[in-house]
Amino acid sequence: MKPIPWKGRSQLRGSGLDSVSAExxxxxxxxxxxxxxxxxxxxxxxxWFLQIVNxxxxxxxxxxNRIHLQDIPPFRxxxxxxxxxxxxxxxxxxxxxxIPENVHDRPxxxxxxxxxxxxPMEVTQKKITREALKYPFRPILIKRNMSxxxxxxxxxxxxxxxxxxxxxxxxxxxxxRDFASHLIGYLGEISESQLNTGNYPENxxxxxxxxxxxxxxxxxLLSGLRGGEQVEVDAAGRKLRTLSRIPPVPxxxxxxxxxxxxxxxxxxxxxxxxxxxxxxxxxxxxxxxxASGPAFDPNVFITGMERSEWVRIASGKDxxxxxxxxxxxxxxxxxxxxxxxIAGLEEGIINPQEETSCGGSYTVGAYTHRCxxxxxxxxxxxxxxxxxxxxxxFYKLGRRxxxxxxxxxxxxxxxxxxxxxxxxSEKEGLIPTSKWKLKRFGEPWQPGETxxxxxxxxxxxxxxxxxxxxxxxxxxxxxxxxPKAIRWVGKDDRRFYEFAxxxxxxxxxxxxxxxxxxxGLIGVVHEPRGTGSKSRVDGIIGAGKTGTSQVVTLGKExxxxxxxxxxxxxxxxxxxxxxxxxxxxxxxxxEHGGGGGANAAPLAREVLAAYFAKKKVP
Amino acid sequence: xxxxxxxxxxxxxxxxILLLLTLISVINLYSATFPMRNxxxxxxxxxxxxxxxxxxxxxxxxxxxxYHLLQRLALPGYLIVIGLLVLVSLVGGKISGSQxxxxxxxFTIQPSEFMKMAVVILLAKFFDEHLQPGGYRLRDxxxxxxxxxxxxxxxxxxxxxxxxxxILIIAFSIILFAxxxxxxxxxxxxxxxxxxxLLWFKLKDYQQRRILTFIDPDLDPLGAGYHIQQSKIxxxxxxxxxxGFLHGTQTSLHFLPEQHTDFAFSVxxxxxxxxxxxxxxxxxxxxxxxxxxxxxxxxxxxxALIAFGVVTILFWQLVINxxxxxxxLPVVGIPLVLISYGGSSVLSVMAGLGLLLNxxxxxxxxx
Lengths: 618, 367
Fold this sequence. Notes:
The complex is a heterodimer.
Chain A: E1 4-5, H1 9-15, H2 26-53, H3 55-63, E2 67-72, E3 79-80, E4 86-98, H4 106-117, H5 121-127, H6 130-133, E5 140-143, H7 148-156, E6 164-174, H8 181-184, E7 187-189, H9 192-196, E8 208-210, H10 213-217, H11 219-223, E9 227-233, E10 239-246, E11 253-256, H12 260-269, E12 275-280, E13 287-293, H13 300-303, H14 307-315, H15 324-327, H16 337-346, E14 356-358, E15 361-364, E16 367-370, E17 378-380, H17 382-387, H18 391-401, H19 403-412, H20 434-441, H21 447-453, H22 464-475, E18 479-481, E19 486-491, E20 494-498, E21 503-506, H23 511-526, E22 543-549, H24 558-563, E23 570-577, E24 584-590, H25 596-599, H26 601-616
Parallel strand pairs in A: 3-11
Antiparallel strand pairs in A: 2-9, 3-4, 4-5, 4-6, 7-8, 9-10, 11-19, 12-13, 12-24, 14-17, 15-16, 18-21, 19-20, 22-23, 23-24
Chain B: H1 4-8, H2 12-33, H3 41-61, H4 69-91, E1 93-95, E2 98-104, E3 107-109, H5 111-129, E4 130-131, H6 142-156, H7 161-178, H8 182-202, H9 205-215, H10 224-237, H11 249-252, H12 264-297, H13 301-325, H14 343-361
Antiparallel strand pairs in B: 1-2, 2-3
């Protein structure tokens, strides 16, 4: 039977015949009243039990409520290099805390602390904020990482410092200070906004969390889980016994793909210079070394630093926090000729045997474009043009290709596109097209600009990582790998992440054309008048391309130009060895370093020599 | 215009009870937020006072129209609140990991609180329009189940297990009140017990932990277990006379978590003792019995159902909250209506009480 729809009741309403309809609920109402009374009785009995029967017991407990919760911080995961060499671990840190409830005479205590270990009173006072005083039993951190002497002094005078407690906590320790700092990253106190995102459910105010590099990217797994204990303390806040305890869970470890020794050499080569060196395994995209100068010491973010040091790191002219290997965008200069050569061959514009004469300059309309070699190279074919880096040859080629066809090949080589490096935010560089210029400046592309593009100038920008990957692709059969710096992340035998190569793109290019370019790049290193001869390592067939990119000086920077240093060109060298069995690809850039052959190629040599020397000794 | 009998029949007792409860709430909230008066505590206290003032206006407004108007407004109102819940899941503010709030010009509202009233009114409309002598069978009830399931699903996702359970309990109370066949009721009970293990696996980790902690407090000595223990110490230590206003040590030393919301009752019991707690419970139960009598005397089925629904909201929240703070139930995060801090809860309950008044004063309209 279907329920009777209660229609027509609106007519009844007016007649007043409906007043008894609630009677249908009479039984329900009786039951509801009964339930309410019974439950009321249960609640009153419960309160009677808690407040009258057990009242005195709870009263005593509340008066001596000395059961506190204490955090036990977890051990943050360690970081290793590819061979399992320890790079980052934790050291015990003796921290000085103050428990407001147990302080009897605050001014006296602060005076004593100043006298004993030289903590300025005002500084200590500032840490005891109103907010912190809200929780009288919550310890306030006064000083992290006390020295041995300070610790001894405080320990012996503890009886005279009521309210002070010393806690031993693990503290992050970067073994080699500014080593690989851009990859490893640093820790910083968690920010209000980070806490509010809900992405850090395990963290509390005052916690240190990863802010950059591996520390930032793998924060969740590295950090581990906080433990804690319920402890009973006496009136002075001293721990009497542990009532219950949840042990902390240590974080996962991270193994990098970099080789510590190679990274050291790369950093040493860059010492006192601004620039970057990237070493990559051309066959899978593993980063073997990634150095960026100047670097910084992540330890100072934890132990505290002078204001001047902070200013230098955060906003200094040298931008030490910037990882130049992935965020530094520079005109690639003559290293771009690799792309040009392939484009010319693929488009059938040049015949490798065909020769062009270089008289030292090339004039289009009113503009004269100079070759770097004043007297000119005379008659050159493609091979010689690559080996000796003849500009005029590529000016002519560029003019015939046009900017949009150049852009097509540059993109194919991964330029102007992010490499999807697995650590940190990178820049994508820039490959101009006629469309891009119209959109960006509202002006059409000028043919003269194409001539600058042909030698990697004009608007063209690339990162050292992109260029290393480019030369790798020429020699590895045309694969563009995603560069990765993490070998694995895991704990004990479990792996939460493990390296696997990812192919991002392929060069769809005639293998014969690649062969021609490869021979040219080997010639750069090994033939007479090759511009990259300073990268030569005994017994190894290397390949490479030099680049010297002009720094465009705009009005505001002219002043710096006058100072001399800033006006120098950027020195580039991209390299790969051994040419017949590729094992390492390099991108080297020295900001304002001068000519690439003289200033970047020798740095590549140092890294290559170290790499092959280590390889020989198993 | 206004019928004179409406004024004559105005339910002053109900208003008096409500005034008493608001007074207790404000005094208690002052004490609960006193320890953090320098860190926004005063603001919480003032905000709640404003909410009460707005609440009284809402309550009076809810008496001005004939409550039968709600038959037409029930479905649109319900859909609007559902819309707000969906909005919350899209753009809502997150506080400690769950997304429950919408921010409107400095005030945050929690749509799930309004959902309780919306479900009550919609169910009242349904049972008013569908009569089933001899009791409802399961197949007659697919609509009420749907009305209940949609908001429950949305609120569980926030995640706010407490409020969605609350809606479930309220809806079931109304369905049972309307009358179900014994056989159908037993089927439902058995099915509910059968699906319990399934639900268990749907719970979030922390929710499972809370229930396990309730069974064995040692499982979470740093979280819920500790809170229950401290709440029991607070209530118990109040003894017969209490420690006195602003003298609760558990409160002032921050041993209690959420002392202005979920654990407001513990603050009251500590400072006013068994006597104070008993007085609060008596006032509260007077309100509930009064509400039931309004349901009994209401002029028609629709009025009785709404009145009963409002009473249900008050009753179950009181019972669950007091059981939670005294350690009889797991900590599920249900505030004590009218006593705990919470603007949306005040507004929706005051609107509900306004409807009670409305139904009460129109009971003799056609004599």
